[in-house]
Prior knowledge:
The chain is mostly helical. The protein contains 18 helices and 2 strands. Strands 1-2 form a two-stranded antiparallel ribbon.
Amino acid sequence: MTDDGGMLGATPRNASDDAVVDSSVWVTWGWVVTRLALLTVLFTLESRVVGDITYFGRSLADLPDVGLGRTLREYPLLAVGVLAVPWWVARLTGLVYGLVFVLAALLVDGAFTAALARQRGPGRVSLVVWLAGVPAMGALAYARFDLVPGVLVAAVVLLHARHPRVAALCLALAVGVKLWPVLLVPLLVARVRDRRGVLGVIVGTGVVLVAATTLLAGAARVWSPLAYQSDRGLQVESVVATPVMLARSVHGATWTVGYASSKAYEISGPGVHALLLVSTVLSAGSAVVLLVAWVRAFRLPAGALTSDAFVWLVLFSVLAFTCTSKVLSPQYLLWLLPVAAAGLTVVSDRAVLGRWCAVLVVAMVLSQAVFPWLYGPLVLDPGSAPWRATATLVLRNLVLVWLMVAAGRRASAALRPGQS
């Protein structure tokens, strides 16, 4: 025995070991408490948000009759595979599909939380953002599958420096689940030193996914998600729809809100056609801005693009796509939150990104207020004080625009000569 009562030869504990233990304790309890609260809300106050899960389950049940080519055609075929995993688990265990779906979302959430916890010092702030951000989204966080592509893109942020080809595989799979991450392919290729290898992984994975889709579901199934989106109207929650939604709150009879075949509420009436044109123009403009950013990034030597520039460019790309589109559902914010949390572990100026993340969490709270709490007055009954619902929606959209502009400014600054 030693004088202090320890065993001879025992490895002494140091302050860093104690810090790791303390960190794991608060992370574990923080995750358990916040997620139990979120599950309670999901199964009680916000149980109506599970409509999409019911739709997924019904579509998968009909798959043997209609075939893969006509099952969930609005999503890439890999997304159907993701949704089918809890379906088969439910079939094998006798559990309800909705319950297994939520448990699968909880598993994805837990795995990403553990990944952030492994980042040690930089991971502390990111964990706070993640632990607070998911409940801020409400039950919708577990009632949609947007966590999957969001976490895959966040894995790209965490892995790109040390494991660029694994990051490339994660990004390719994210594109296979939901198409929007394709916007980030040029950024990853520009960021890493092994540009040829990373591009090869992405292209190779893409070829495999396209070939598998064609073989299993037909060539038309490759393009069906794009055709589905192009045929959609002006969704009430989109940023571009803000002017007519404001006008409708005053003169409700002039505009009509209906449940479209896209399984979303769309608005029609005076000015809507013009706003659809505005959305097209803005989307084209954002594409040009992104193209310029990609060119500037590729002019740098391989690997010279900083982590700060990479993270801010990713956030700006997602927001530019979201804010200019004619379609915007609240779960789209789940594309941003994992990336922002992961970004906090790699950027040099965590204070700036931390403040940006705080505003993002505010946007998520406002989105939860819009859907499901204020959705009835917003889309169904314009006579029941729609101004409150509309004002909340407008505020949320303004916050999203601010986030886009702020991310764009930081990205532009990081791309200036001498900054990368």
